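Memo to structure team: turn this sequence into structure tokens by end of day. - J.P.
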Amino acid sequence: QVQLVESGGGLVQAGGSLRLSCAASGRTFSSYVMGWFRQAPGKEREFVASIGWSAGFTYYADSVKARFAVSRDNAKNTMYLQMNSLKPEGTAVYYCAASEMQGAVVPALYESWGQGTQITVSS
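Reply from structure team:
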């Protein structure tokens, strides 16, 4: 498995931007499809975005499309999530995860998870 560590969370005002990073170690990072999920208090973990092995494939939840951008740098074993125009409903713990399945959007299809990073969007 691959080990994952998220960073870049924090407090931001509505309309602001943040960039999350997910650093990987262990098995070859480039062999994994990578995803971002988030979980708000009292809610289930939900899919945010994913990116294929070579970054040629990206997929977004409708709620973040056109505002968020996922990318990866396989040379640095790191994935990123640029989040713009943040909304208060985006307040959640954000997790990065690794899967061997292209297009996976459910948590059960991801085999490795980071510890999560908190993002709070104030109104």
